[in-house]
Amino acid sequence: MFRTKRSGLVRRLWRSRAPVEGDGEADRGTHGSGGCCMGKATKVAKSNAGSEAELKALTHSILKKIKEKQLEVLLQAVESKGGARSPCLLLPSKVDAKVGQQSYSLPMLLYKVFRWPDLRHSSELKRLSCCESYGKINPELVCCNPHHMSRLCELESPPPPYSRYPMDYLKPPDSPDSGPSSSDTGGMTYSAPVGPSDSLALQESGDRAHWCVVAYWEEKTRVGRLYSVQEPSLDIFYDLPQGNGFCLGQLCSDNKSQLVQMVRAKIGYGIQLTREPDGVWVYNRSCYPIFIKSATLDNPDSRTLLVHKVFPGFSIKAFDYDKAGNLQRPNDHEFTQQPRTGFTVQISFVKGWGQCYTRQFISSCPCWLEVIFNTR
């Protein structure tokens, strides 16, 4: 039987759809046991044969109406799981599709089929700043590239009692092996030691107004030099098919720990750090959870900090400019600032820390980042 290129692309796309629970192929990093404070990651039961057939027929009929070049763009994004840079997929925003009793817009249907089967409403989504549709309201054509979107990390409110990280507990122990004091205590001081090459990098970037610097740590040891950031968006990754940014895989590390090596290999596509008008967002591009601690993720009047678990495909506003202004209070141990450094956000790959976990301090985590914001 003669098969067109278009039908071949459609079949490949359907085979690359997002798995649901029961497929046996579900991304093991997408869901998992609850952390201290996490983005919602609802498991979806495998659909019955009738609804699966209906969804397949509907998806095929819609995809066959899309131009071949656009199908190739969609296939590139889906098969690379966002690792390859793919252009926007601009399609009519007002085309509706119906599955059973539920109606979905064309973008929502593609997001459900290729990223998040449990997606219920567009309010759960955040468009990435790399997308042409970013910041536009109700355009006639909207980008339907599933990997130009992320899920919003919804924080538990109020958080469970066990997730609280009391300040008294955060005081560093009187021992020489306590590790970097501000990292262990959650304090906002600049804990990454600055060497001659770091100072030169900061001086060189001073004229270009860097908005943050990034330090990479393996347990209690910083690896590589400080990475100064001037561009509005930065990819931090271990292995990315296409991309520029802070490649952790190119850093020379003497750490022979099997756990560190295992976690390092799981960083994969890593995270995307983006400076936006309302603050700094972190998008988890990897296949495993990341864990974040930031003062602006908590109540301004709180004397405790939370460690937030962010699942793959989710975004979280890690640093809020408005809240940061309210936190700049004199004589406040938690939010003390040094001349150049501003506030610090800590991000651990794969392994969490705090009272919910066996690791009490981030310096016990195998692979983690310290993002120091320039608030001048």
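(the above was protein one; protein two follows)
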Amino acid sequence: MLLFQLPEDVLYHILSYLDCKTLSRLSQVSKVICHIVSRDVVWKNIAKGLLNTGITRYWTDIYPHILLKDRVKTAQNWCDGVCKRSTPLKWKTKLLPWIQLDGDTLFLSQAAEIRSYPLRHGCKKIRYNPVKVYSGHQADVCRFVLTDSHLISGGSDGKILVHNRRSDSTMKLFGHNQEVNCIDSRNELIVSGSRDQTIKIWTLASSCPRDLIPLYDRVWSVVINPTLSSFVTGTACCENLSPLRIWDVERFLGTCVCSLGSDFRRGAGVLDMVFETPFHLFTCGYDTFIRLWDLRLSPQKSVMEWEEPHDSALYCMQTDGNHMIASGSSYYGVVRLWDKRLTECLQFFQLSSDLVSSPVYCLRFSSSHLYAALATALHSLDFRHNLNITIR
């Protein structure tokens, strides 16, 4: 019996043990073999060990609509830092922008508005006129979050706007006395944090807050656990309290489950947080560290740390659900890529000039692009170009 006369499941299992170069050569034997080798199941083991292929630590696939073979090619460039840079959007006034990605649409806050732009990855520029504008704030938008049905924003006017993405309706929540620095939402739950040192818990069914929690410190970040059972707050660390605290959503008026860490120095505020799984929380901020917390273990110490080598505050970050972290620094628009299996930074990109320094206020990435919002421009890194390996 010839190799390719084997049952498909047996054949795919054998091919899954081959390395990238061998599969590339094998795909050039014939059209039939090329078709077989191009199947996602063949590349899954390889993809699991690379950066940003969309295969998470639990083997789920974030980008099932893109061939895994193509994502493996692009992953080589993420690792090597090979990309094509562009500046698809610029503006004259210095802002504190925030961005979100939803498929092929990019949402960008500019002053008191949030604009959505379609992404055309073959073009260097994003068309100047957005396809939709979300407005209603009387001052700058500080943060916003996307759900399947809503866009929810918090502004420096202290208000929260809940925009229905399927209609033109907007619900206004009069929540805080000062700017809403952070906001998160999952399902029907909304949690907002403010400079007024309070957290408020809302639901989409009511314009009144369900709970109010005084924190006695400015709130910089908040994130809801994927299980919806709790949320985490990150504060400015100006008081004698841990800046990281976990709160129970279901108990009345919010109950603090525990505090994370015990050695934060004064002023080591937490600026961004990401739940990668219900048990794995990533945090970053003014103390120049990215930290991974395993909520199943002792809350006193993080299980892993990565230090920004130039002692810069870390404004934002995102993970790929597996091995990669991308972070944005406070000086010269520096974006860093980290491999969680290493202690040192893997790649870095300086997006602003030496003469004009700007923090990376927010960054987001897809399987092939990274977008970073600075004070006067949106920058793009395209990792599809100059591919290092050939796979037909």
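Reviewer note on protein two: The chain is about 10% helix and 40% strand.
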